[in-house]
């Protein structure tokens, strides 16, 4: 051991932090700044540079929250001796923490060419003109507020320009032309790598002692009066330590440069567009200096923004893509949430994402890159493979609160049995800087030791963008083969996955959803946005179905461009910090406005198509967009009128009210509690002694991540809300006031007489509260079913294991179901996603299952006004229901029948009919290639192997099985046709098939 280890380490720490940095740049000469403040939204380079600028000096305050200030910088390029590089150093007032969460700038040259970005970790701009020539730089500086306050999670007015004020946030600190001393900079990188490695080695390791002695000698060789002149000698003393190779058995890290850029979060979409330009400009600048650097970026939407906003910069990206150095990843439109979007939405994430990359670059990503989404649906593996992809990467499950994922490289099996090769980087971050600590963690935590020795490390500043820096690349090169460290190889996702797949012949299998034991509040926060998403998805299905039907039957034009625009709006809204409800207020103002505009557009398309299909006359035609018959109207067709609704009776009963039909009887107490529910079986389905239709108000004060989390500690101590229940026509109406809020629930019988329909309006004015609606049902279900994309998943209702206990709040789509043998109870909804489903009963025996929906939250951060205001939520409670009937109820609530008056047609036949009823048509559209072919998305909905017969409702020449991008699955993808003109298909449980019917 080194005799004075602690003292030497303290001396070295001071040397690295204080002695070297002042000597990185020499001979600074002031630049001359002038400024112009954009009055509102950002403007183009041409418009900005045509304005009148005011002279400013370092120390000048600038930048109202969310504002843009343009700086014009002039000066002279300094002369540089060999070993020195002239650079402009521009400090917009950066802090040393939270890169990407504060001011940023984009630098242009005199002709308007983008050079690179300015960020807290990246303040230098190379000056490549001749010495003595004039400098003219333009900086578009964004005054993005740091609304997260270094993760303090305090309510902030800065989340919207309406409340953020106008006081300048930043101070222009520096604008100089200076000379980068290359040897001093390289010496600093040498020290950084060895220092980081040393601290990860065991205290008694000979290698640790060797590194400490080498750094001690090198630091002593640096003359404080001549750091520049002695840096080279110091580097020579470090060379033996840096050149010692890694062991052949050392863990191999594929270092993939990337920048996780949230498409919106603590900034609006508008600012993300600029973050993309800044980050990609930084990457291109690094590529010019380092030929080994490879960069990966996901999200086709972000490339599309760059193409629109900065076509010249996009062309530079395209050139690097062609070289294989700028690698599009993921194959999705955005890095979407995967719990909340519908199945067809996830399909379109792939079709729009891959379609863009194929059209723009002629390449197709084979990986799915979702490092930060909040859990992963069990429907996803099948969709990944059906989209033509092979691999999946995530990082987020390292955030689990209680249980650690048992694998890092494995096969992930979906609900239909499809498996996809998956990697979960053991480095536990998607924003690595390739530090010694991070590389050591990746090696230490890797769980597949002995079977394989490869892992991937995504490196580069992320969330707010920025990407890799030259310091990170220096670390990568120095650790390519370094004794004591994992080996580091600059790489791409495809290179890693190809090698990992070859290296690991029999990986373990993880089956079903990958539930994140964290961020459970994201199934509920920002209810208006979630409702807007659900309604948009339904309207898109209707618009495509009826527009395709009108095109085939009436020869009308199919609105390809309008539908594409609507889909892109909805897909962007499914980004994993928008739809989950974890962004600032501005994001939701934009989202709700976009959903309203999209609804108007889709309603116009649907009305136009229905008018064409109905023809002209004096009748009424009723259209059903659902893939199941509703009230006698055929699936995806139209009839003259629905069946008469069931007769309903309301009678006083034991101080309360009885609401009944011939198939259902429900008894309520005077304050709104459902005390008894019997369906056609006559069996009581409310747990004896308990109350259903129970609104409960919980405290909602998570320890951290306010809008994201619901904590188990807040599940107790609920306040049960009670109101006044009175008859109103064929319904019962419950009025309830609580806190500063009010609630009205209209309780009626469904048109078929088999279910209770609950129409709830809430004026929500609470803070840090959670509103739930519960139904303790007398069904002893070991597992409950919940709809997910293209099927459903069964989750335990008990808490036998820590994994079960952690799943105390779960996502579901249109329905949940608790059943015993044959039948149970179904709870369907039109806009709700969060549930807790648990056993309920006495101390001595479990007697039932509690189905409880989370209706509204009121977090304070990042949007202190989250969910305030009026909300409408609809539910259906169906007793004696099978899972198939739960599916039907979900479609009924989400696809109400549409009536067209003055119709001439007596009916409209569907474009496709499937039998049996367990196989459903989720989507009917015209082919993306505009050939006029009809495309069907089919899925098996109940979880069993089954055959199906497809009948086309028009003269179809052939039926071809395709992938999600509507390409034939194989050379023999054409389905054989039966003598009766129909086609037979075989489905495995929850299988999704895409069929293309040629006209």
TrEMBL record:
Keyword Metal-binding: yes
Pfam families associated with the record: Alpha-mann_mid, Ams1-like_1st, Glyco_hydro38C2, Glyco_hydro_38C, Glyco_hydro_38N
GO function terms (MF aspect): hydrolase activity
Residue ranges of every copy of the Glycoside hydrolase family 38 central domain listed in the record: 517-595
SMART domains tied to this protein: Alpha-mann_mid
Gene3D superfamilies documented for this protein: Glycoside hydrolase 38, N terminal domain (3.20.110.10), Glycoside hydrolase family 38, central domain (1.20.1270.50), Golgi alpha-mannosidase II, domain 4 (2.70.98.30)
InterPro entries linked to this entry: Ams1-like_N, Gal_mutarotase_sf_dom, GH38_C, Glyco_hydro/deAcase_b/a-brl, Glyco_hydro_38_C, Glyco_hydro_38_cen, Glyco_hydro_38_cen_sf, Glyco_hydro_38_N
Keyword Hydrolase recorded: yes
Family indicated by similarity: Belongs to the glycosyl hydrolase 38 family.
Name the record gives this protein: Glycosyl hydrolase-related protein
UniProt organism field: Arthrobacter koreensis
